[in-house]
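#structure-requests
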Amino acid sequence: MNKNSYTNAVISIGIVCFFFGLCAFFFLHAGQLSELVNEDMDIIIELEDEGVEETQDKVMTKLNSLEGILANSAEMIGKEEAFSEMEQEMGRLVGFESEENPFRNMISFNVESKYYTADHLNELENALKDIPGVLHIHRNEMVGSAIKSNVRKVAFLSLLIGLALAVFAWIIIYNTIKIALMQDSKELRIMELVGAKRMFIKRPYVNRMRKVGLKAGILAATILGLLVVFLGLSSTNAWQFIRIEFLVLSLVLSILFAVTLAWLSAQWVLSQFLNSTQYSLN
């Protein structure tokens, strides 16, 4: 294999393995994203206007005693504040005069992801709705379910793309080795004529492709690591999503994927070539 073919193989396989590592990164973080979605889903408790301060105290006390409430997530939102925020976001609300307010006083809180189950949410709702002054409790489950469904689809798609990339990398390795073998076919015949065993003939090509895989894997892991660091520096919120152990695992998988695929492909291509009629001495 000449130097240009060697370099091109490293770069090509490295790019493929980078995208494989990226798919693995998103696949591993699918569960993490679902957890963030769960904990970001606000649960709203609407309160009656009469005795709102007393009701607020009772609700806050109850929330502090319940299991699974996200720490420091409970907050009181007055109806004037809610109306003002809506006007700022949407402009003046059509159909409402300035003295009219369609909102009620409310308390918003969030639940820890591991407690975000239908049974536990029903328990919370039953515990809160019996407090005097509580009107309604709203849970936006449809949006959360839709988001988590899309996350699962993205994770599955990432897995399929990863498998497709494995096939693409195998094609690159196959063509790279096949060209090298065709160029060295005369030398290979001579080696076999003087008694060299197939394992001895394969060894330099397998070792070379193992090195190609290692360098390609390191290249892919470096690009992926730099990309994640760039995303983290660009947005501080990104580190809430990124788990270091999943990042490290993605980098390791990129390298292992490149080395293993290069080694297995080399073994298979060499066996096929040495057993083919194209190479046969007869």
